[in-house]
Amino acid sequence: MPEDLKVPVLLTCPSCGAKGQINFDKKLITNSDRGITAINIVENLICIHSFVAYIDNNYTLRDSFICDFKVELPQVHFEQTVKHEMNVDFDVEIVKINLKPTLMVHILKGLFYNKQVALIIDYDFIFKGIINFFSYIFENTFNSRIISVDRQEYRKLKKNYKDYLVLDGVNILHDKDKIITDRKLKIESLLAQKFYSEDDAKTCLLIIKNEVEKAFFLSKSIKEFIESLGLQKNDKIDTISIKNMLKEKYSVTIDTEYLNFLIIIVKKYFKTDVPIVYKNLMGFF
Question: Per the domain annotation, does 200 fall within a domain?
Fold first, then answer.
């Protein structure tokens, strides 16, 4: 490709902080309808890590995060899922521009944990769009409890938000239960990556809404399965039994990483104890 059709972009690894300049195709970035382009940075290009970089039309890195592409999202069809009406009262492209992927990942984790989320956002119209977005993708599934907090109010009255996950953009101001850690965000990061990588507004909304519904119904099924067993105090259940139940009910194969994600939702959102023993086809591990 001729050099005048390339543009240098300075990237920073979100894991180790390593920096490197990569030359990208100008058309790849400027042709994006939404003003932000998601690009997968493979291992050993900048450093040993792979990550997703989000670059705006000014050829500036807007955000980046680690995403484990080895994790597989199960393919499931739910008969009980309602048909989605696309008459949404927000602009998807504006949401994408103002809701950084890292912030989206953090909000998803908070809501999957059934936490109240407080966002420090300077403009009401941005907050309204984000609220409507999460209300839509969480419709008929998880609670979507998000509030806006004035920056000065939060500084004066922090004690009022002790039970909230408080987020200021990509910065975490308060996380009492320490739920925002890289090792716990693999699935949420993959959901965000799928959303931001799709250019078509209708398609990306359906993708993220379907993934949220998938997480809700599968974890709810695990909860109901555990309750149906009538386990006693010292009884345990193994992962193979749970995977077999989901396979029989939904004709789906669940990998261990995604199962861990579902089990956390069962524990934190549905408040159900999961006395689990990890077991593979060869025995315990």
Answer: no
> Domain for residue 209, yes or no?
no
Measured CA to CA, the distance from residue 110 to residue 217 in angstroms comes to 18
Q: Are strands 164-168 and 116-119 parallel, antiparallel or unpaired?
A: parallel
Domain count, the chain: 3
Alpha-carbon distance of 51 to 192, in angstroms, equals 12
Domain that holds residue 130: 92-195
Alpha-carbon torsion (111, 237, 242, 257), positive or negative: positive
Q: Phi/psi class of residue 52: alpha, beta or left (left: φ > 0; alpha: ψ in -120 to 50)?
A: beta
Q: Are 65 and 173 in contact (CB under 8 A)?
A: no
Query: pLDDT-based confidence at 97, cuts 50/70/90?
Result: confident
Q: What is the pTM of this model?
A: 0.83
Higher per-residue confidence, 259 vs 4: 259
Are the C-beta atoms of 38 and 197 separated by less than 8 Å?
yes
